[in-house]
């Protein structure tokens, strides 16, 4: 039995220090705390995100941010419009949304104030809000990312017991795309030893190809604090022979080692090529002040994305994140700096990044990005 607790909050729009280079968001919004889909790999039950006293209540007690729309209306007045991720520590289209409609109301405020949106969900209830998503798409940018990790019902019973089946999610993707809204798949997390076989990778990637706009490959499932406790309990109960394998792969770490990530990423990359689907979300591009600064900033973040994907190390391209952040903060046009030969005066821009920026501004392309995206 799920209990709903209505609460008032002081803030709902959270600004991130660094832009995300997977979903392109600068802000996050979570209209609920807790999630009825109760996935057994969910990392929102780790202490750093959790508001529940006991992590086992995460899917039994849902906090409903009753005043979030009023609070958001005030916050957007002071914030610069930028990409908002509706997801993170809860699913915005879990069953509670049918009753409370907070996600819908949040989207209405975002549409009205020209904030672009990325939605992360497993719920086909998102189709209810097609009208607003269309409006956001037309005004700025909108992308809906559905998690699909396998089509194996026996495994989903253990890992995603209460989420709508992946076939429904895939149909929702097709519907959204047929209405002109970008939608794709988060193949996240690729659960080690259960979902990382060539067969499962190929089944997911081949089935979503031609139907989804992209498939993001998330090979680095975390195992930390409560999430680790719960996941290991699941293994002990249902898959005892896997316990040892996990201890060997993770040891005391929160992530599998980079060598493992590289192996899975490479296999998935080849399958994406084989089936002709992107393994990334193309950066948003829409009219905004200093648009070219954002185009350059996003280019650097995309290069970082591919470097991180190839090395299995999320910190391998940190210089690109820093430079990109400083470019977004410029209060002058980057092309003006380029014409004056001052690109290397931007903090964090060393020789290699300078050359990348200059090539892009001169020729509208990047050989660095092409190389990072290219054959592997
Ligand atoms: S849908 Fe997302 S937030 Fe909800 S339980 Fe599953 S992983 Fe966690």
Descriptive notes:
It is a single chain. This protein has 376 residues and is of the alpha/beta class. Helix content is 44%, strand content 11%. The protein has helices at residues 68-78, 96-100, 102-112, 130-139, 153-159, 166-178, 198-208, 225-238, 243-250, 258-275, 291-311, 318-329, 334-339, 351-363, 367-373, and strands spanning 3-7, 14-15, 27-29, 32-33, 61-65, 84-86, 117-121, 142-147, 182-187, 215-217. It has a seven-stranded mixed sheet with strand order 2-3-6-7-8-9-10. The chain has a three-stranded mixed sheet with strand order 1-5-4, with no helix packed on it. The termini are far apart. The structure holds iron/sulfur cluster.
CATH topology (level 3) name of the largest domain? TIM Barrel
| Largest sheet properties | 7 strands, mixed
The strand line-up of the biggest sheet is: 2-3-6-7-8-9-10
The second-level CATH architecture of the largest domain is Alpha-Beta Barrel
Q: Low-confidence parts lasting 5 or more residues at pLDDT below 50?
A: none
**Tally of extended strands?**
10
**Average pLDDT, all residues:** 97
Q: Any idea how many domains?
A: 2
Tell me, briefly, the overall form.
Answer: globular
Q: SSE order, as H and E?
A: EEEEEHEHHEHEHHEHEHHHHHHHH
Q: Number of helix segments? A: 15
């Amino acid at each position: 039995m799920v209990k709903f607790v209505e609460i008032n909050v002081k803030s709902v729009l959270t600004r991130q220090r660094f832009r995300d280079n997977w979903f392109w968001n600068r802000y996050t919004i979570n209209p609920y705390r807790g999630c009825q889909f109760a996935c057994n790999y969910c990392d929102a039950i780790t202490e750093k995100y959790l508001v529940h006293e006991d992590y086992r209540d995460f899917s039994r007690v849902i906090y409903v941010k009753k005043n979030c729309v009023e609070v958001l209306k005030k916050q957007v007045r002071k914030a610069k419009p930028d990409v908002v991720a509706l997801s993170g520590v809860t699913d915005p289209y879990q069953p509670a949304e049918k009753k409370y409609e907070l996600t819908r109301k949040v989207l209405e405020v975002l549409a009205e104030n020209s904030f672009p949106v990325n939605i992360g969900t497993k719920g086909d209830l998102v189709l209810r809000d097609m009208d607003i998503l269309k409006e956001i798409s037309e005004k700025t940018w909108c992308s809906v990312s559905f998690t699909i990790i396998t089509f194996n019902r026996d495994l989903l019973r253990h890992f995603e017991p209460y989420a709508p089946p992946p076939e429904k999610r895939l149909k929702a993707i097709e519907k959204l795309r047929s209405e002109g809204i970008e939608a794709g798949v988060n193949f996240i997390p690729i659960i080690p030893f259960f979902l990382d076989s060539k067969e499962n990778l190929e089944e997911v990637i081949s089935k979503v190809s031609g139907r989804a706009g992209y498939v993001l490959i998330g090979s680095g499932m975390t195992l930390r604090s409560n999430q680790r406790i719960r996941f290991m309990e699941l293994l002990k109960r249902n898959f005892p022979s896997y316990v040892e394998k996990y201890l060997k792969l993770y040891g005391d770490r929160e992530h599998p080692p980079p060598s493992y990530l590289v192996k899975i990423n490479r296999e998935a990359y080849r399958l994406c090529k084989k089936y002709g689907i992107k393994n990334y979300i193309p950066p948003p591009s829409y009219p905004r002040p200093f648009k070219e600064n954002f185009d350059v900033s996003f280019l650097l973040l995309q290069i970082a994305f591919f470097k991180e994907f190839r090395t299995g190390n999320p910190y391998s391209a940190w210089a690109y994140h820093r430079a990109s952040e400083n470019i977004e903060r410029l209060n002058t046009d980057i092309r003006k700096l380029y014409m004056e030969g001052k690109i290397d005066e931007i903090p964090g821009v060393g020789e290699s990044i300078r050359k990348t920026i200059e090539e892009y501004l001169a020729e509208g392309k990047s050989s660095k990005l092409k190389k990072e995206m290219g054959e592997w």
